[in-house]
Every structure is written in C-alpha cells, then in structure tokens.
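User: Sequence recovery, please. Input:
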C-alpha cells in the first residue's frame, strides 16, 4: 500500500510537470510529498494523553516492592481487576490451608489420627470426626466462615485447639473486611466517572469582545451533575532561566474560566472555557506562524464533586499546537424545543467549529498596532472642531462634581456643573457665551458655568 501511494505521487508529479513544463511546479509538488511523509512519521510526545492518562513511567526507584507492600491497600485498589481478584482468592485459600495445617498438627500430636484411637469409642479427640488432612481443611473453612454444619466440632480435651479456633475466627473476620473494602473501593472509584466527561478534540483561538482568546469546550453526558466544578489549565514548555538553567517541562498556569476570569462554572451543559491572551499570558507573543513552530502542551483539568456519590473526581486532557485551530469558533449546540419546553444538547456538534476572521499576528503586535492607531488619531484632533453637541454626553444634570475629559486635549479641562440655571439677562451681559449650561469655547481653560 505504501509503495502504491509513492507510485501515485510520482505519477502525479510527472503529470504536473508535463502540463506546466516548469521546474517550480515540480519542486512544489516534491516539497509537499516530503512534508507529508515527514508528518506521517513524526511522533507526537505527550505528557497527558487525550483520554487523561499521564504518560509518565517511574524508573530506578529504590526498594520499590517494599514501598508498594507497605501501602498494600492502595496497591490493590490501583491494580488491575485480574490481580485484585487473584489476591482476593489467594488470601482466603492460604488462610484455609494455614489453619488446616494447625488443626492437622494438633490432631496428630494428640494421637487422634492413630487407627487404634479412631476405633476406640471411649477416646476423646481434640476435634471430632477428623480422619485426615482433608477433614482438617473442611473444618478450617467451616470455622473461619462460621458455617457450622455440625459434623466436626472442637472438644474440651485440647486447650490449644480452642485457642487456634479463636485466632482463626478473628483472622477470618479481618481478612474478609480487608478484601471487601478493597473491592468496594475499587468499584466505587470516581475515576470511571470521567469517562462521561468530554473535552473538545481541538482548541481554538479567536477574538471575543475584541480580545484574542484561547478556548476549548467541556461537556458532561450524564444527568447527574458535577457540583463545584472548576477548570484549570497549564502550559508545559521548555524554558531557559536568566541563570542559564534548562527547565524542559516548565509549567505555567493559565488563567481560564467560563468568562476568562472565574474558574468555577455552572456545569449543566457543554461550556466553552476561555483564556484571555493578554500581556500576562504566555501566549501573548505567539502568532499564527509561531504556533506552527512552537513545541508545547496545554494540559486542561476539570475537577468537581459527583452529585450522586459526593466523591471528588478529576478529568484531564491536553492540546498540542497542531490541535489548536487559529481563526475558528465553536458551533452552538444548544437549542430550545418548543414541543417539550426543554433545552436539547446535540453532542454531534460538540467538536464542530466554524471559521471566523481573526488577525494572524500575535496579541502583542495587535496591541501595539491599536496603540499606534489611537495615538495617530488623537494627534490629528483639532480642539476647535469640538462642538457643544458632545458636551451633554459627558456632563450629568444631577451631578455637581467635576467631569474630566483628558482624552480631548493635552490640557486638563474641567467643567463645573451648577444646579441653578443662569438668568437670561446675565447671559446677555456675557455676550451669550453661557447659555442653558453649555460651554461654547473650550480652549480658554477651566470655565465655571
């Protein structure tokens, strides 16, 4: 199949070269072919996989087995089900065999297994109806689990038998409580709850309210909600400090939230999480072209309390630069059904995006461009062209404070609003300069009206 693709690619290059009879078309097609081959072979290295598992393996840990055995409960809970069930069965089997050996030794020492004593009806054994190791094993199972069939019982002849019976009863209860706790903890783990928490396949970068934003979408397919849900995001990237220290996996916290400010969300339907790319963001200096060359990973984390169980859960995912779509926006997926009066979420549109007009430069360049345009516009303003019609937009009829208009000129112009109206005769004496609380000339400095 690979050879067929190569042959077809070479044939297409020959056709293009023959049709255009130029070296440029040949070189362009060859470059595309080699680039596609390189992208196919390229290995994407992740710290966190898309489904949330961490791509981290511990190696050369001193005394690892001993440390795992010291925390055997967590080890069994984290282990796979086949190992947990194997340990579950082996614990009971080994305990039965161990106490069966004790019972066999007690009977053997007391002489209960001698044929002459077994045939003597006046002989009192330590355990009645014991004929061999098999009988001791059955008696061990009955004692540990308090089955009590009544065929084999402990007599008053041997105090050591009574002591072993008490020890086995206590040990059986402890083993059973431990293994039941492991199985229950494994079944009730909130880790499986994350299977119904969804992250969008791609993240997008577009403008929202004039601010460049990095956005991704989270959703929950269950009717039971996640209480106190909050979202975090971290940028993992190589960094070199001022002292020359290399930090290959430096983590930078990204400020994210439903509105770009608060990380807590009301998680009742799919929500778009926003990170504003401002001067405090590590993406502030990154353009669309830089995004293609950068090597970093954005790890996103959703945490909350499961409503039905009250347990805390955490879902994770990550985005590589190739999974961030510049100039896209998520498509709306919530509609209102008039027939039932309910809001319907169409998860078929969960990963859909639409293209929007977005500047390809970095947020820093965009802010510099806006600042330059703003200064140019302000510098060309002529204050003589400011008409009285703009003053009512600034002054307030119910205010006696000073209104500042620094944006109109370099000088600080203040207008004092007086509640009492100006009489008409005083207005005529002033040549009509003051009328109805409006200022006609703003270049003469502060004017009291």
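Assistant: Recovered sequence (449 residues):
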């Amino acid at each position: 199949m690979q050879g067929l693709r190569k042959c077809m690619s070479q044939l297409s290059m020959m056709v293009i070269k023959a049709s255009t009879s130029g070296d440029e078309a040949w070189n362009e097609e060859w470059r595309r072919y080699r680039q596609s081959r390189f992208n196919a072979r390229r290995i994407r290295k992740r710290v966190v996989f898309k489904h949330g598992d961490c791509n981290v393996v511990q190696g050369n840990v001193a005394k690892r087995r001993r440390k795992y055995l010291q925390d055997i409960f967590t080890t069994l809970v984290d282990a796979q089900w086949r190992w947990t069930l194997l340990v579950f069965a082996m614990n009971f089997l080994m305990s039965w065999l161990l106490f069966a050996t004790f019972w066999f030794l007690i009977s053997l020492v007391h002489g209960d297994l001698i044929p002459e004593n077994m045939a003597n009806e006046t002989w009192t054994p330590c355990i009645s109806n014991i004929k061999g190791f098999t009988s001791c094993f059955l008696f061990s199972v009955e004692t540990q689990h308090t089955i009590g069939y009544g065929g084999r019982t402990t007599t008053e002849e041997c105090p050591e038998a009574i002591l072993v019976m008490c020890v086995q009863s206590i040990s059986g209860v402890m083993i059973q409580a431990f293994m039941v706790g492991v199985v229950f903890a494994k079944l009730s783990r909130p880790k499986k709850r994350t299977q119904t928490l969804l992250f969008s396949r791609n993240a997008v970068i577009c403008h929202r309210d004039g601010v460049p934003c990095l956005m991704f979408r989270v959703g929950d397919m269950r009717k039971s909600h996640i209480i106190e849900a909050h979202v975090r995001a971290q940028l993992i990237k190589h960094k070199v400090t001022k002292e020359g220290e290399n930090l290959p996996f430096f983590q930078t916290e990204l400020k994210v939230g439903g509105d770009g400010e608060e990380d807590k969300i009301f998680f009742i339907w799919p929500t778009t999480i926003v990170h504003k790319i401002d001067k405090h963001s590590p993406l502030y200096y990154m353009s669309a072209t830089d995004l293609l060359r950068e090597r970093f990973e954005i790890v996103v984390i959703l945490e909350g309390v499961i409503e039905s169980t009250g347990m805390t859960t955490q879902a994770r995912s990550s985005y590589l630069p190739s999974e961030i779509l510049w100039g896209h926006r998520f498509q709306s997926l919530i509609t209102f059904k008039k027939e039932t009066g309910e809001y319907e979420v169409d998860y078929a549109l969960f990963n859909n995006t639409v293209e929007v007009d977005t500047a390809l430069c970095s947020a820093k360049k965009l802010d510099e461009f806006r600042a330059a345009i703003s200064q140019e516009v302000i510098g060309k303003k002529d204050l003589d062209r400011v008409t009285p019609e703009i003053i009512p937009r600034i002054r307030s009829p119910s205010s006696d404070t000073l209104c500042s208009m620094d944006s109109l000129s370099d000088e600080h112009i203040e207008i004092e609003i007086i509640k009492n109206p100006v009489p008409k005769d005083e207005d005529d004496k002033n040549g009509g300069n003051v009328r109805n609380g409006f200022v006609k000339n703003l270049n003469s400095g502060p004017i009291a009206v």
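The mean pLDDT is 78.
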